[in-house]
Write a structure and sequence with these properties.
The chain is α/β, with parallel strands linked by helices and 301 residues long. The protein has one domain (2-172, 200-227, 271-286): NAD(P)-binding Rossmann-like Domain (Rossmann fold), CATH 3.40.50.720. 40% of the residues lie in helices and 19% in strands. The radius of gyration is 19 Å and the shape is globular.
Length: 301
Amino acid sequence: MIVFVTGVGGQLGHDVVRELSLRGHQVTGSDIAETYTGEEDIAGMPYEQMDITDQASVERVITGIRPDVVVHCAAWTAVDAAEDEENREKVYGVNSTGTENIARVCKSLDCRMVYISTDYVFDGEGTEPWEPDCRDYAPLCVYGDSKLRGEQAVSSILEKYFIVRIAWVFGKNGNNFVKTMLRVGKKFDTVRVVNDQIGTPTYTYDLSVLLADMCESDKYGYYHATNEGGYISWYDFTKEIFSQAGYDTKVIPVTTEEYGLSKAKRPHNSRLDKSKLRENGFRPLPDWKDALKRYLKEIEY
C-alpha cells in the first residue's frame, strides 16, 4: 500500500510514518520545511516538501505519488496564538483550506483520507461523553472552528474518509503537556494545574497503531480515539506524571478561571465516547497510565 503522511515534523505524523513503515507499506512523509528535521528513526523515509495552503503544490506532490491513502496530520495547533488577529488567516489557511486542498486531490485520485481532528469542535459543556456522530458543533475558539471547517470539507468532498477526533496528545517528536510538566516540576516545588477540564490523554504511539489499522480497512466514518482508563482532569494527569517520574512536586488544583493566562477558551468537557471503535472491529488504545509509563521510557526519562 502506498501512503502519504502530512505533518511528519510533528508528534503524530512521525509515529504514523514509523508504524506504517514497520508494516511494510510504502510511505512518504511531508511537511512545510525543506527537509525533515525531526527524530532520526524515520530520517531515511522518502520526504516531500509541501505547503498544504498552496493548492498547486498539493496537487503536484500528491498526484506525483498517487497514494492509496493520505493520512493528514499537519495542522496549526498553537491554540492561544490562533486567537491573535494577525494569525487567523494563516490558521484557517492551514486547518481549513489546506485540508480542503488535500481532500480535493484525494477525490480526483479516488484515494482514501484520514483526517485528524479534535475535541475542540464541540462546546465542551455538560458531563456526557461526546459521541463521534454527534453534530452539535459549537467550537469555543478559532482553533476549534478551523478544525471543524476541515472536517466539513472532508465529509462533503469525499466518501472514503476517516475523521478521527483526539485530545490531550503527547508523543516523542515535539513538545507536549507531559514534557512541559517534567520541566516545570523539576524547577519548582509547587505547580498550579486546572481540575475542571475533563478528558483523556492520547499517546501518539498507540494512536498510530489504530490509524494504521484504519488505513488497512474500509470502515469509514467519524471516530473518537484517546487512551482508555477513564476520564481525568489535567490536575489528575499531572499528579500521575510526577508520581511516575519520581517527583515530590506539590500539585495545587485550580479552576480554569483561577488559572487565567489562556487567550483561547477551552472546553471543560472533553470526554470522547470511543465505543464505535470496538463496534467496527478496531482495537481500543491501552490505558493512559500504561501509555504514560511507556512514553517516559521512550523519551528515556
